[in-house]
Amino acid sequence: MLKLEGLGFSQAEIVNELSQKNACSKRGVYKDFETRESWQPVLQCVVKPEAVLLKVVNRYEQIYRQASIRLLTFENELAQLGALNIMLKANALLNETAVLPEVLGRLKDLEEKASKGVFVP
User: Fold this and answer.
1) Would the pTM count as exceeding 0.70?
2) Among 37, 67, 55, which Cα is nearest to 94's?
């Protein structure tokens, strides 16, 4: 499910594909989507990301994997440098995504303090 989502497939496409491939009900796959906030962070060792950010994490991880395959299989030096560049950017963006909820939480706290008249240096 995570790989297909990382490749950009829609939820409906993923449900159809996985229900056929695994000979299970579509409702079962939808249930996995509904409960992903409990199992995906454990699977990916991500600390309490918001539901929307889970999809972004999947995409960056998939981009990194695809670039690493190209790095190892392409013989062209420029293609290898391009793959390394993409891997570097994907890592940086993944890191930003992982810390974004914490940053947003801190900003919210600062806004609340400012609205109450508390001076924040």
Assistant:
1) no
2) 55
